[in-house]
Specification:
It is a single chain. With about 230 residues, this protein is α+β, with helices and mostly antiparallel strands. It is built from 2 helices and 12 strands; from the N terminus they run αββββββββββββα. It has a domain of about 130 residues: Immunoglobulin-like (Sandwich). Helix content is about 25%, strand content about 35%. Strand 7 and strand 8 form a beta hairpin. About 20% of the residues have low confidence.
C-alpha cells in the first residue's frame, strides 16, 4: 500500500517537472524587443532642403523601458524608429512622442502629442510578444506609427517696380518728388525785388509831378512877359 502511495507521488513529481520544463528552459530568452516608428513630413512648395525637425520621446510611466536615443532630428521628409527596446516583463509600457517647435521662418510645426503604448504579453511558446500602437491627443483612433505633418509657406515675391510710380495688385500709387535747388553766390549777393506790374500808383505820381512842373513853368513864362509888356508901355 505504501509502495503504491510513493509511486503515485513520484509520478506526480515527474509530471510537474515535465510541464514546467519548457518554461524553465526558455527563462534565459524570456524577453522581446519593440520599436516605435515615426515619420516626419513637410508639405508646401520650394521647401528648403536643409529644413530640420526634432522629435523627442519620454516615458509616460515609471516602468517604461527607455531606448538608447530619445531624440532624433529629421531633415526634410524622413522616417525613423525609437528603439529597439528590450522588455522582460509582460505589461503595458507608455510613452509620449512630440515634435519640438522650431524657429525657422515660414514654417508651421505640427504640435500634436502622441501617447504610444507597447503591450507585452506571453506568447504560446513560453516567450513574450509586443504590440505597439499610437494615439494622438484628443483622438481615440489607434495608429501603428507616429506621424508629424509640417507646412511650409514659401514667401511671395513682390511684383512692384522700384520706380516712383508703383502698381501692386490693381492699386496704383503715384509718388511725386519735388526737387528744390538752392543757388548761393558767395560774393556780391544782391537782392532784386520784382516789379509789380499791376501797381499804377507810381505812374500816376510821376505824371502829376510832370504836369505840375509844366504848369509852373508856363506861369513863370507868362509873368515875365506881363512884366516886360508893362515896362515897354
Amino acid at each position: 500500500m505504501k509502495t503504491k502511495f510513493y509511486n503515485g507521488i513520484f509520478v506526480l513529481f515527474l509530471l510537474c517537472a515535465f510541464l514546467t520544463a519548457p518554461i524553465m528552459v526558455s527563462a534565459d530568452n524570456y524577453s522581446c524587443t519593440a520599436s516605435i516608428p515615426v515619420s516626419v513630413t513637410v508639405t508646401g512648395s520650394n521647401v528648403p532642403s536643409d529644413s530640420k525637425f526634432t522629435v523627442t520621446l519620454s516615458a509616460a510611466d515609471q516602468q517604461s523601458v527607455m531606448p538608447a536615443t530619445t531624440s532624433f532630428t529629421a531633415t526634410g521628409n524622413q522616417t525613423f524608429n525609437f528603439g529597439p527596446m528590450t522588455f522582460n516583463t509582460p505589461g503595458d509600457y507608455k510613452y509620449l512622442v512630440k515634435e519640438e517647435k522650431g524657429s525657422a521662418s515660414n514654417f508651421t510645426y505640427d504640435s500634436s502629442v502622441y501617447t504610444v503604448t507597447v503591450r507585452v504579453i506571453n506568447d504560446n511558446k513560453g516567450g513574450l510578444i509586443a504590440t505597439v500602437w499610437a494615439e494622438k491627443d484628443g483622438q481615440t483612433t489607434k495608429s501603428d506609427s507616429v506621424n508629424f505633418v509640417n507646412t511650409y509657406a514659401a514667401p511671395t515675391t513682390s511684383s512692384c517696380p522700384t520706380t516712383s510710380s508703383k502698381a501692386c495688385k490693381g492699386t496704383s500709387t503715384v509718388t511725386t518728388v519735388t526737387t528744390v535747388t538752392t543757388v548761393q553766390n558767395v560774393t556780391n549777393v544782391s537782392t532784386v525785388k520784382p516789379v509789380k506790374t499791376g501797381d499804377t500808383s507810381n505812374v500816376v505820381l510821376y505824371m502829376t509831378a510832370l504836369i505840375t512842373s509844366v504848369i509852373v513853368a508856363l506861369l513863370i513864362v507868362m509873368m515875365k512877359r506881363h512884366e516886360n509888356n508893362k515896362y515897354n508901355k
